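Example 3.2
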Amino acid sequence: MSGRPAVVLALFLYAALAAAVGVILVNGHRALTSGEVDLGLPAVSLPVPSLGTRPPTATAPRAVAAPAATRSPATAVTAPARTASASAQPPPRHLALDPATGRTFVAAPERGSITVRDAEGKATATVGVGWSTGLAIDAGRRRLYVITSTGSSGSLRSIDADTLREVASVQVGSAPSALAVDPLAERVLVTLPFAGRVVAYSGRSLTESASIGQQNAVDLAFSPRGDRLYVVSQITSELVMYDGRTLAAGTRARTSWGDVVADDARAYVASGTVVAFGPEGLATVATLGATANAAALDRERGTLYVAHERAGRLSAVDLRTGAVRPVLVDGAPVALALDEQRARLLVLVRSSDVPVALPLNAP
């Protein structure tokens, strides 16, 4: 038994060395790579995490029997094979699609960067932005908007979608959680849950132009026509419909908070259920059986795609019938984007920053 102390000492030294290496990897500075754009932002050691991850609702979700799923045929953008080194990378969290070009912008907050990929999935550039909590693109005006959080403060940045150069930046307060581009006016709205405000900024200069008072507002969405704005709150579970032009409050309801998307008639909120909300009130469309963290709406086919990161699966909800069917995807989905022009759903999974492209079903 004389060898046991030596083995214990060796294991202790190995563990200490591994811990030291881990600290270096976490706190070390990353060098710029080829094609990367440095915006000169300071490194942040203790960022505030995004509020975008949806916690479970108070009532435990009920298991829902689902038919056997079939994998959709692969399209142009496919995820690389999962490897140990790839899975060890800090996970991506946010996805934005440029519908004009098919390019995607993938943000990984812990890496402090956005990876830009072409329509085929090839990486073309990396933009350093800091700890991002949301992305939105104005394809018509060629602007990518990014909200970031740096502990006690947050910022809104405007980036030229073609040159990837920063155009403007403004401080917005602590922990911005979501943003949405107004499809009519040249402005972008940001939710500030800790301040109890939703603030509208000029899309060009990022100067504040208006604000809404709504406690704990965490997500929002415009209707495609821009005549309605929907905002959902986390703690109060309040869902409010505003006039998209004047921002005057209208119909209100209470529901479990979740990801909000909208068509011209109503909004849909995905949490443990899918609810529809409009001037006529609130109605339950479907029970999902798992907590949702992201949603994408196929308006033409009347289908809502819902990501369940914790359950590691993806659901498709028929908004006309309420039927829920599973959609197979390799990995835990964290973000979704619908590419209407190319008839595909882009799925960002936790283990890769290459979006997986799935073809949309025929009507």
